[in-house]
Amino acid sequence: LAGVADVFVKLQPRAETLGAALRQATPEALPEAWAVSIFSEELARGGPGFAVSLLLSTYERQLRNILGAEAWQMVSVTDRRLGKLVVVPEMRGEDVLDGSTVLLTEKLSGEE
Prior knowledge:
single chain, alpha+beta
């Protein structure tokens, strides 16, 4: 699924360019900027990869419950690195971590 996501990331700049050209060429100034800004995201949500991801997420939760396992999530995966271990009760979007860090937290706000 990560490979599919990369395609959508590369597609968004093209959508922005085409959207800007179309706005200049049409009297109604369409498509609207907000629609262009979410084009690749909506394209991804409309594809089979999004449905498969939802199914796998549900399956994973159920499997963890059956096994009595704790819920966990990898928020940002990078190349293998060593880093400072930081344990915090909650991670918020405005939090900044210096250098290579392995972060363990119980809550995420969704803005990471």
